[in-house]
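Worked example 3 (structure in, sequence out).
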């Protein structure tokens, strides 16, 4: 397929025909190819993408708090997700790379493709305004946003406790099994979670060691947050 035909196909997939074709060419140009490359558009597109995804998540998850929305957004705008979207648009065939970068497989490199996709979003924003850029983002990620549940990206209690402690430069907690009850096929575990530096501990029970550890971490984190709020 000729280059012009491939660009026509891309614009149909984007849902936007460029009034200024130079913007489209720039968005597809890696810095290895020449001075008129896509890094400034990538910078702009990164911000537009974050705003559009934030808006779509805000509308989709009306009952979710900031933390849940932030975690879902981080998943959607990470390199892996952008790379997959770039492949779906057929960007590897359209990127302008130096001969050396092309021989080195640059057209398939996830980071280069993710950057090019952000540059395209920036180019659509420059050429057609925010509404067009938002429509593009919705076309790329709308189905995923509608299909996902915010709770599926919620951090587990052990991770949240560890991050809460690390943010305060406190050593990570320790876990130990306190008791095991019941027959082998239906055991209940009791686990203690301790933070020696704070002289705090909490216990939890569960049908597996992991479940008991999560419950103990959840209880201890709740106590620590309550104490922090009261201070």
């Amino acid at each position: 397929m000729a280059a012009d035909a491939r660009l026509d196909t891309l614009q149909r997939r984007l849902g936007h025909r460029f009034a200024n074709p130079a913007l489209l060419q720039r968005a597809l140009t890696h810095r290895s190819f020449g001075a008129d490359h896509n890094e400034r558009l990538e910078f702009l597109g990164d911000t537009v993408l974050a705003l559009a995804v934030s808006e779509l998540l805000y509308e989709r998850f009306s009952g979710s708090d900031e933390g849940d929305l932030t975690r879902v957004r981080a998943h959607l705008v990470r390199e892996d997700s952008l790379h997959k979207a770039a492949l779906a648009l057929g960007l590897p065939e359209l990127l302008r790379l130096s001969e050396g970068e092309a021989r080195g497989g640059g057209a398939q490199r996830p980071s280069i493709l993710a950057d090019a996709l952000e540059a395209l979003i920036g180019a659509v924003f420059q050429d057609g305004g925010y509404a067009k850029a938002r429509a593009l983002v919705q076309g790329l990620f709308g189905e995923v946003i509608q299909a996902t549940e915010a709770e599926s990206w919620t951090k587990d209690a052990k991770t949240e406790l560890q991050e809460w402690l690390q943010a305060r430069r406190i050593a990570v907690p320790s876990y130990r099994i306190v008791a095991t009850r019941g027959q082998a096929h239906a055991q209940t575990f009791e686990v203690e979670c301790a933070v020696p530096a704070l002289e705090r501990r909490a216990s939890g029970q569960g049908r597996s060691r992991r479940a008991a550890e999560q419950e103990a971490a959840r209880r201890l984190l709740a106590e620590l947050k309550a104490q922090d709020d009261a201070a």
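Notes: The chain is about 60% helix and 10% strand. Strands lie at 174-181, 188-195, 200-206.
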